[in-house]
Amino acid sequence: MSLFYFTFILIALHAYMVFAYPYEEYILAPATRDVRPVAIYDTNGNVSDATDLVSSQDPTPFTVESSSGDGEYLDFAFTESSLFIRPDKCDALSGSPGLSKPLRLNVTTGGFVTASKEYMRGEFHYLIVSHGTAGSVSISNLTVHWNASPDMENPRDYVGYFNSDNEKLNRVWYAGVYTNQLCSIDPTTGGIVRLSENNWFYNYTISEGIVSLVDGAKRDRVVWSGDIVVSAPSMLVSTNKLDGIRNAINHVMSLQLDDGRLPWAGLPFQNPDPSKFQWSSTYHLHALNNIYEYYLFTGDLEYLGGYWPQYKKAMEFSLDTIDETGLADVPTGMDWLRSGMGGHNVEANAIFYHSLLIGAKVARLNNDHAAARSWTKTAESIKEEINARLWDDDKSLFWDNGRNQQPNSLHPQDGNAWAVITGIANNTRAAAISESLKARWIRPYGAPAPEAGNTVSPFASGFELRAHYVAGFPESAIELTELMWADQMLDNPAMTNSSFVEGYTASDRFYYPPYPNPAGVSHAHGWATTPTFALTFLGVGLEITSAQGKTWSVTPRLGTLGRATAGFETSLGQFSASWTSKDGRLRGTFNTPSGTRGTLTLSTVGDETLRISGPRGNRKVAANGKTSIILENLAGGKYHVELA
C-alpha cells in the first residue's frame, strides 16, 4: 500500500510571474492554471521519492509511469482544512452529516490520466493520493488545473491594490481578492445541492455566460444575493471583473414570481414552484441593491432601465409588508441562517430603509419621480420608527425585534451594524453602538453574532467592521480585522491561510453552528471578504459616489495606521490615494480621472490647517474649531494634501 499527502499553497507559484503588478508579492492567484504541489505534508506506507512530485517542472500532464498488477487504481481525496485529512474520504459538500468518497481513477494501463470536468473540487488545500491494491504504481507530473475565474486570461491581473504598514491588513486584503476569484466559476459547473454521501460532481448550469459569481468555491456553488452584496465591491476594487456579478444578477431576476418576490437563492437550491418558493425579506432587498451596485460600478444605464419594471414590482411587494407601526412586519424567517428573523426585525427594516433610498435613486434614473418621492418618505418613516420603537438605552443597542424587549432579549450584531452603516443611528447612538459591539468581542475568536447562537460570522462581522469605520472608530475596525480575518481566518491551523471561511464558533473546536457537519463548512466564501473593499473605501477613504466614479469622495480614516495606499479603476480611469500619519500630521496624495468631481473630508481636532494643491492651484483652509474640514466640488486630477 502506498499513501502520500500533498499541500497545495498557491502563493509559492509567484516565481513564475511574467508581468509586474503593484504589491504582487501578496497576490495568491497562480501565474499558470496548471499548478503543482509545493510541499509534502505527510507520507505513510511504502512510498519512495515523493518529493519528486514537488520539484519536477516537467510540463506534461499527470502520468502513470508504470503499474504492476491487475485492477490498479489511485484514490484522490480532497480537503480544505487539515482537520479532515484522511485517505478514504474527502471533506464534505454539504452541511449534513457524512463525508464524500474520494475520486477513484483506474491506472492499470498507465499513461496520461485526467479527471473529467464535473469532478473538479472547487477549492481544496490538501490533496491525498492513496494506492490500496496489491501491486505498485509509479507516477509523475501531478498537477491540478486551476479553473476559477474563467473570465481572467491572467489570474494575477489585478488592476486594484492596497498596502499599508500593517502586514496583517495587507495579507487580508489580498486573501479577500483570492477568495472571490475562487468563487467566480464556470456556470456549467454549479453545485448539485442534494447528493448522496457517496456522490459528488459539479455539472448544474446556474447562469448564462462564461463566469458566474457564487457563494462558495466548494459549497454551494449557487448564486445568493446576500453574498453578492459583499463580493461585488471587493471585486470592483481589485480585479474589476464584473461579468460574473452581472450573470448572477440576471439569474436571480429570471426567477422572480408574478407577485414580485425574488428568490432566496438561485437554482438548484431554489424551488421555482410558487407554492414552494423560498423567500427572504433581506435577500429580496439585497437582490435589488445588487442591480444598483452593478450600475454604480459600470454606468450601464440601459441595463438598469431594463430591470426597472421588475425592480419596481419587487419593491412594491416589500412595501406591502409595512403594518400600522410604520415598520415592515417580516413574514418569513429566511436570512443568512441567523435565528429570530421575522416581525419588526431591526436588521430587515434597516436594510429596507437603505434599499428604499437606493430605490429612489433608481426611480429618478428611470424618470419615475413619484416613486422616488414616495419611497424616500417611507424610508424616513422607517428610520423614525426604528429609533422610537427598537432602541434600548440601557444596552446602547437596538433590540432585535419590537416583540421581544426584555432585559435578556436579543440585541443583534447584524441589525445594529446596519443601523450605523445606513445612518439610521445618529452620531451619538452610532458611537455607542460601536463601543457596545466591541465590548462583546470574544478573544481570541472575534465578534459574536448572538442572533446565530455561538457563531462568529464573517458576513455579519463584516457589517460590524464597516460600522466601526462609519461611527468614527477606525482603530476598532483595524483591530477586528486583525483579530478575526488575520489571526483566526488566515493563521489558525484549521484554515487555509489563503481564503476566508464561511463561519466558525467562539471556541477552540472548529465548526459552524448552523451546520451539524464541520467538514461541510466552506473555506472560500465570498461573503467573508468585506475587509477588501472596506480598507479601500473606508480606510484609505477612496470611494465612488455615482456611476463609474463621475463623483467621488475621499475621506481617510487611518486609525492606528502610519501609512496606507490603495487604488482601483473604472471605465473612466484610475482612482488612487496614499496617506501617511505621524505625530498628528497627515500627508497624502490622491488622484481621480479628469472630468470627475468629488469631495475631500478630513477629521480634525479644531486647530489644524489644511494645505492642498491641485488642478486649481494651492489653498489653505483652517479648521477654526470644527471637527472636520470639507472641500466640495473638487475637479478630478492629482492633489497633494497636508493637515497639521
Provide a descriptive summary of the structure in words:
By secondary structure, the chain is an alpha+beta fold. It has 3 domains: 2-145, no CATH class; 161-537, Glycosyltransferase; 541-643, Maltose phosphorylase, domain 3, CATH 2.60.420.10. Helices cover 29% and strands 21% of the residues. It is built from 14 helices and 29 strands. The protein has a 7-stranded antiparallel sheet with strand order 11-22-23-24-29-26-27, with helices on one face. Helix 8 runs parallel beside helix 10 and helix 12 packs antiparallel against helix 13 (474-488). The longest helix is centred in the middle third of the chain and has 22 residues, at 369-390.
What is the gist of this entry?
The protein has 644 residues and is α+β, with helices and mostly antiparallel strands. It contains 14 helices and 29 strands.
Molecular shape: globular
- Uncertain regions: pLDDT < 50 for 5+ in a row? 6-19
What gap, in angstroms, lies between the N and C termini? Answer: 71 Å
Structural domains: how many: 3
Radius of gyration: 25 Å
Name the CATH architecture of the largest domain: Alpha/alpha barrel
Instruction: Name the average pLDDT.
Output: 93
Domain Alpha-L-rhamnosidase six-hairpin glycosidase: 213-396
Protein name: Alpha-L-rhamnosidase
Keywords: Signal
GO molecular function: catalytic activity
